[in-house]
């Protein structure tokens, strides 16, 4: 998904200067069992491999700096 988004911007004539995932998944507290159960594995995997954590768990946004 990240590659598709970046390629779309480049194909539209933008130059990608920088990008990163926002950590909204860690900021927003939810009381559901599913979100509480996934919090620690999501955080650990994000520290190891950001792209894989985003694909498996979701809850992140891609922020792109382009000109």
Between the first and last Cα atoms, what is the distance in angstroms? 21 Å
Q: What general form does the structure show? A: elongated
Total domains, how many? Answer: 1
Number of extended strands: 2
Task: Classify the helix fraction into a percent range.
Answer: 55-70%
From the alpha carbons, calculate the radius of gyration and give it in angstroms. Answer: 14 Å
Spell the H/E element sequence. HEHHHE
Provide the residue-averaged pLDDT.
86
Largest sheet: 2 strands, antiparallel
State the strand order across the main sheet.
1-2
Strand content range: 15-25%
Low-confidence sequence ranges: none
Total helices: the number is 4
Structural class: alpha+beta
Descriptive overview:
The protein is α+β, with helices and mostly antiparallel strands. The chain has helices at 2-11, 24-27, 33-48, 50-57, and strands spanning 16-22, 61-66.
Q: What structural keywords apply?
A:
67 residues, alpha+beta, two-stranded antiparallel sheet, 4 helices, 2 strands
List the helices and strands and how they pair.
Blueprint: H1 2-11, E1 16-22, H2 24-27, H3 33-48, H4 50-57, E2 61-66
Antiparallel strand pairs: 1-2
Task: Give a brief rundown of this model.
It contains four helices and two strands, in the order αβαααβ. With 67 residues, it is of the alpha+beta class. It has one domain.
């Amino acid at each position: 998904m990240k590659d598709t988004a970046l390629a779309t911007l480049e194909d539209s004539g933008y130059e990608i200067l920088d990008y990163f995932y926002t950590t909204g998944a860690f900021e927003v507290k939810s009381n559901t069992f599913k979100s509480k159960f996934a919090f620690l594995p999501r955080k650990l995997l994000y520290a190891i491999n950001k792209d894989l954590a985003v694909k498996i768990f979701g809850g992140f946004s891609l922020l792109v700096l382009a000109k």
